[in-house]
């Protein structure tokens, strides 16, 4: 008996995913469910070759353990051939324009992943390549993190109904922006809990509120920990200083009160109820990294955005979340490039 994921022809085919807003809310939910389906199949060692003989370019201006590993293993499991193009392998924007690079890559590859700095670069790749382009992270958006995060939430709670997510930390970075919009799209109540200086961009808040009007999600942008954390089922965070930044002292001073620690979890009121903790990783929760040791020497802080106690607690789901990067990315690539039938949703 065939299931809903196994037919030919598909409304996603040829689409790029550059930001959450490239999807409708129903498409977002479909990809979450498809990712959960592919994960279940993977646990049975079943890998449908939706992308057999496709060639995938993995363009990385910024390094990443999870994004590179997720796209690579996802491509192999779908039957595709991934080719890594790091910062030393390409001349994008340096000796060759992004548009010219897009045309070259589009003539040789069936799909392109891009992880870098400028949102305009991933948009130009999509405009001129003629093939699906997937945003592995830019300074503006991180949709290939949001879908796996939603997968993690749904596999823990069964649905999004009545769930509240609280994000603590730098509210104007790409992860916060993407979670704010992605949660609003699928009806998850979301609170961005940040100092006033690091609130989400106004235009992103407006986008989230528009989706929330459709989904019924409640949006809260606040600097007040008690209010933002009250009733939260998901507490999540990100590093305080993003790649390409170096203002550690300033950020530590602003964000130390927004650390995900046991007191923060207590403020949810859900310590004995439905509660998980997520982190997109890497996390500065101990002194077992060179950067962590350097930060401790310079700023006398051994745990930053999340404490080791919480990171290793029964609430922690960051490693499930990391694995779900692969399954979410498999869903995205298979839907936008694979030969399969997806009914109108």
TrEMBL record:
A Gene Ontology molecular function term of the record: ornithine carbamoyltransferase activity
Matching Pfam families: OTCace, OTCace_N
Domain Aspartate/ornithine carbamoyltransferase carbamoyl-P binding: 15-155
Enzyme class label: transferase
Reaction it catalyzes: carbamoyl phosphate + L-ornithine = L-citrulline + phosphate + H(+)
Gene3D superfamilies xref list: Aspartate/ornithine carbamoyltransferase (3.40.50.1370)
Binding-site list for L-ornithine: 174, 238, 242-243
Subcellular location: Cytoplasm
Residues reported to bind carbamoyl phosphate: 64-67, 115, 142-145, 280-281, 325
EC number(s) reported in the record: 2.1.3.3
Keyword entries, A-Z: Cytoplasm, Transferase
Span of domain Aspartate/ornithine carbamoyltransferase Asp/Orn-binding: 161-335
Family annotation (HAMAP family): OTCase
Family as reported in the entry's similarity comment: Belongs to the aspartate/ornithine carbamoyltransferase superfamily. OTCase family.
Full protein name: Ornithine carbamoyltransferase
Taxonomic source organism: Nicoliella lavandulae
Lineage: Bacteria, Bacillati, Bacillota, Bacilli, Lactobacillales
């Amino acid at each position: 008996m065939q299931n809903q994921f196994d037919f030919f022809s598909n409304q996603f085919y040829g689409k790029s995913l550059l930001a959450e807003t490239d999807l409708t809310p129903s498409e977002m939910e479909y990809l979450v469910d498809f990712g959960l389906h592919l994960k279940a199949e993977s646990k049975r060692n079943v890998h449908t070759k939706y992308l057999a003989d496709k060639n995938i370019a993995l363009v990385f201006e910024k390094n990443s353990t999870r994004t590179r590993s997720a796209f690579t293993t996802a491509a192999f499991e779908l039957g595709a051939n991934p080719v890594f193009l790091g910062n030393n392998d390409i001349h994008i924007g340096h000796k060759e324009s992004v548009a010219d690079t897009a045309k070259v890559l589009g003539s040789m590859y069936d799909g392109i992943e891009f992880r870098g700095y400028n949102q305009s670069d991933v948009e130009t790749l999509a405009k001129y390549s003629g093939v699906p382009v997937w945003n592995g992270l830019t300074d503006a958006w991180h949709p290939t993190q949001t879908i796996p995060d939603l997968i993690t939430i749904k596999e823990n709670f069964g649905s999004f109904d009545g769930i509240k997510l609280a994000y603590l930390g730098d509210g104007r970075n790409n992860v916060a922006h993407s979670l704010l919009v992605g949660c609003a799209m699928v009806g998850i109540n979301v609170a961005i809990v940040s100092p006033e200086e690091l609130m989400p961009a106004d235009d992103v808040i407006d986008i989230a509120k528009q989706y929330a009007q459709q989904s019924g999600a409640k949006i809260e942008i606040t600097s007040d920990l008690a209010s933002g954390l009250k009733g939260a089922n998901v507490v999540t965070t990100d590093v305080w200083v993003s790649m390409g930044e170096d203002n550690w002292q300033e950020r530590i001073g602003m964000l130390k009160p927004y650390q995900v620690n046991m007191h923060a979890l207590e403020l949810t009121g859900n310590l004995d109820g439905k509660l998980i903790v997520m982190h997109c990783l890497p996390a500065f929760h101990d002194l077992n990294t060179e950067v962590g040791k350097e930060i401790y020497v310079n700023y006398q802080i051994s745990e930053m955005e999340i404490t080791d106690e919480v990171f290793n607690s029964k609430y922690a789901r960051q490693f499930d979340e990391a694995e779900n990067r692969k399954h979410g990315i498999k869903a995205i690539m298979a839907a936008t490039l694979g030969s399969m039938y997806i009914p109108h949703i």
